[in-house]
Write the structure tokens for this entry.
Amino acid sequence: MGARACPRPMGRKRGPEAERRRPWLVRDMSASQARGAASDPGHGGCRRAWVELLAGRVKRQKLGPEGEQKVRESALRLLRGHLNLGDLVLEVEGPPGKQLCLNRLIDYDGPGAHIDLSSSLIGSALRDQAAQLGVPAAVLCSQVVASGLVRVCEADAVPPPKVLLTPDQRKKLSSLFEIAQNLLAQSMFSRLSFCQELWKVQNSLLLEAVWRLHVQNIVSLQELLESHADSQAVVAWLSRDLRLLCEQTEAPCQHADVARAMLADFVQMLVSRGFQKNADVRGTVDPEWMSQVAVAVLERMLASALEALAAGIQEGSAAHKAVSCWFGVFSGHVYGSIISTESPKRFFCHTLTQILTHKPVLKVSDAVQMQREWSFARTPPLLSGLYRRLFVVLSPEELVGHLQEALETQEVNWQHVLSCVSTLVICLPDAQQLVDGWVSRLLTHAFESCDLDSMVLAFLVARQAALEGPAAFPSYAAWFQATFGSARAFHGSSKKALVFLFKFLSGLVPFEAPRYLQVHILHPPLVPSKYRSLLTDYVALARTRLADLKVSVENMGLYEDLSSAGDVTEPRCQAAQDVEKAIMVFEHTGKIPAAVLEASIFRRSYYLSHFLPALLTPRVLPRIPDSRAALIESLRRADKIPPSLYSTYRQACSTVGEKKPEDAASQREVEPSCKEEPLGLLTTALRELRASVTDPTQRDALLAQMAVISEQLRSALGLGEDDSDFEGAPVQLSVRAPKLQPWEQRVVDLLLTSFCQNLMAASSVAPPDRQGPWAAHFVRTLCRRRLLPALLSRLCQLLHHQGPSLSASHVVGLAALAVHLGESRSALPEVHVGPPTPARGLPVPELFDILLPCRTQESSALCLKFCTAAISYSLCKFSSQSRDISYSCLSPGLIKKFQFMVFRWFSEARDPPSWEDPASSPWRPLCLPSVDWQRATLCLWKQRTLRELLKQEGLHLTYRDWLQLELEIQPEVDSLSDTERQDFHQWAIHQHFLPAPSATGGCDGDLEVACATLVDVLMDFCQSSRSYDHSENSDLVLGGCTGNRDIFSRLQEMAAGLEQGPARLGHAAPRGHFLFGVFCRRLQALARGWDVASRLQRQQELLMCKRILLGLPPSVLVGSPRLEQLAAPDCDDFFHLVNSELRNFSHDGALTHDITAHFFRGLLNACLQSRDPSLAADLTLTACQTQCPLLLTSALLWWPHLEPELHRRWRRCSQSPLPAELRRLQEARHFAGSVLSPLAAPPTPGPAWLCAAALHFMIRRAGKESIRRELGQLDGQGEEAAGSLKPLDVCAEVLGCLQRKRISWLPLFQLTETDAGLGRTLLRLAPDHQVRLLPVAFYSLLSYFDEDALLQEDAFLHVAVNMYLKLVGLFVAGETGAVWTPAHSGDLQAQGDPVSLITNARLFLLQSIPRCPKRSFSDVAELLGASADCDPEVRAALLSRQQAMLDPDLYQEPRLF
């Protein structure tokens, strides 16, 4: 053997040349075998490896077990003599025929036996070497492995700093770690020594190598960190490498997953060790030391991130990526492997505290001045995202408590505190109540202990929350007024509290924004009068400060937003906005806005200097005055515009009109140019929102992006910081002609287009229930005070006027928008819609019922599409929530219209439904590029969830609902043909609703109930149609109302079925017709009054009742008598309707011809069915004389038209003459005609009042002005002949004739219902309003007669007093106008106004009382009781006259002599 080489010192590094040379062990062994190798011809002088030599010897010499053992011992002795431990680990012979150093061993992918063989050899060698050196084998092995690890980390050519390994380095470390694991298994590895060796060369360590030691269970991260004595060095090293790791994690590379896993493991270890409640005492060092190190590393990482944000890092830079990566570790999934949830929670609390207290350099005064810049929209997205992640772990109460604790115990960074408050207000659902409670507690503590810190914090928090808009928190003006504007406010308890408040407000004045000072001045705290000086001092101080800032309270706008903390608007700009708002209010109310009137009186400086010049801007006046011109004219008439200014305005308008049109056009084009930039920014923000909506990983950024959109929307429309405070004012909307400004339309169209596109894009990625809250936040952004009217007006234009032109995506998007508007219904004002709809307040969801009618085929198709999309979206969006959510988001009217249209359009839906597969979502067909609406509708119809929803009260389509919707259909433009429509009606009535139970909106199989409901709905529909269309057509009730003809035909069919059908069980005796029950119920529900509105409403209702009766068979009026009984037909219900209702709207003592003829047709038809037709007719007409005389007088009036038809009908079924009572009517007409003839009058036939009525009609028809000759022919005919003559001149002649015949006419003014005979008959002939005019007629007629003759009648005083009291009663009740109007159409005009008549009547009565004879006072007690409350002077006169009669001596002249 050759000379032995000296062993190299352990741990010495080899250069590149040594790495390329052959192993030293092979070189020495080849020298000792040189001769054998040279003589071997098979090798040609080439040296062979030691393994090959050993293999050859084994083949040549077979040894037993003892021999093999000796060979092994010899080999080991040889190794011990030539061992270099450093090279041994890096150079180990491999399989036969190959040389294998450490890097080849690491790269080797073959069987593990060779690795095990090498590891066993290395272990054995290291053990022997350790024995020679006298050191523990574990220590030596640890040093060797550490040296190998360092060499691997230094092998990469990439210069530092870096933390990740290359793929080649990972392979080498994998083999090295297997060797280390084998050494660990043999208890030949010291972790402590290994860690100490690593720390000696810590600058060469790569963080991934350290992490892989932890993953391979060789040395944990905790053990490695605990082994270092210098905690500061550990913190610095780990913090530096973690920052590098964050930068490389966000960088685009193929090892990003490894980096994220590394970061997660490091954070888990640091959090578990730093924030573990019960420290693990199994470590080698003090657990408190390890906890401090972990906390220090986490704090340093957060501090560096916050400093980077404060420095204004640029998005996309390495620093920005590092901060984003580190903030990402606060996501919940990072801490999934930590068993205890308390450690992450304590870590999040500690992080929040560190954020709030990071570099507290700003003072409270700085916060007061700068807090507007710290709103949610202006907070860096990375910081607001960090806040949101912290809020996930902490409950709202814990969050507020932690904020309070940090503010009380430490100096804070006000920017971070207030931006955290803004994020809390935006992101937490119940933030308003939370912040309200917090502020209330702060104010309570502040006033109880006069704590300025609590006071400042309360105001800062309230103002910061108000910056985020009323959707999150009330405006500052509303909050300040609600907090300090009542007697029960915090400052109202004592003078001390009051002084404290104003001292605090005064201290804020130098730092306040002008907006807040204006709020305090215009909405001051409520102060008792004795402490008013405190308020006046503060107001003077605030006004002085505003003057220094060159802001005037007097020049504030009429509608200026005081809740905004923004800069004060220039008076000119604000005046232009005030003019637009005033014009809008004037359009909806037709009156000068109250704010304008108040400004013209109390704020005259602003009104004259700014508002009027903005309103009176010269322009080309339109031919038809618009709203602006109408407002100017109203102000001019109210003397609110100085004449000189108005004259200048008109002259300037004339000058503008002479300019060239192109000049005006160019001027108009330039006007909105200043708004293009905000609109472009808004467009960009909406485009960025779409990217967030479609990317599930960016859901956390949605709220921040919505805040940006809200900010850009304010700029585009010139809105205030808080423009959603509706203050209870309803939104005015004209459905017939919705109006909005062109610029508003551009903005609204942009928003609606964005919403529809976002919805379709999001639906292509996920169903609505997994899209997050973006849509709700988007709609909430639209619900601003100035934007909502424009939005609703645009929706009205699109749906009500342009609906058929909308695409499928538009319909789906607007339907989803309607759902979210319904979700926010509690925060939205009511909508007052103008004609053609009722002027009443509607919730926003119900507005869509009006915007989506079902009259024509096109409108029905749009309504069905919209309802399908809205219901599908609602069911899918709120599938995991209560059904009450869907109920509140959708209008019941839309759900009912959906059922109505499905039944109407799809015959297969009329059959019992077959349930759809629950997995098939009704929303899925609506997301396809080409929507199949029929498939989508039927898919929704078959959904079990829809059926469950329809079981809710108020959502199921009832029979009444179906009738209301069907009546709206216009047959000429209906989607169904006449035959199909009739078949559908038959199915709906007789198969669906008639047999259905009443609990589900059916009729319980009762055809009479079905008819009654139809009549009720028909009358409602006709009445509403008249008010909608403002039509004067009297035929509107049946023929004029589009869509009701076929429905009325169904009523006629069902009414005929009722008459022909069997009698109802349990009703053997005949009963009245159901129709009169419906009429009676409806008429009783109307207000009874004598004002014009009540009378017109009642007259309209009666007109509809009459026309329905005329459309049905006449047998409805007259019930058929039973054949086995000789009885009159049943007419009681019709008689009651005539006496109670129709009589009051009769004219000249008669009904109209149509209803009169209809009654007599029914009478003859019913009588002809009885055993004795003549007797039945006579019995009925005889009953009419006492029960309903108006029918007989009506027959007399229309007898020339009625007689031929009666004769024709009677002769058709009977050869006998007309019944006697009909002949009596004929005779009365002949008598009246003979009286007017020059011949002598025949004797009076039948009842005298009937002949008098016939004569009255004859005289009125003849147009005679005097009836003296006719009265002369009636000599001796009795008082009845005069009773029915009504006009004043005729009455005077008639009453004079009676007086000459010594017949008293005073009983005519004492008629009552209890009177038998003529009195009650006459009352049933005259309308009630004419009966109420009897006092007017009485005192109007007195001038025709001799007073002395009247006073001699016993009943005169009683009648005169009674008539006077009734006349006064009419006047006192305010009903004089109602009863006087008909009188003024006749001869009572000469009597003057009601006051003159009452005055003359009173004077006449006071003069007559002393002249009345003694017998006239027989019932003076009754007169005294009646006149007690009406006229004390009349009562005194009556009492004086009574005393004179009781003791006449008192009134005789005394006898003096």
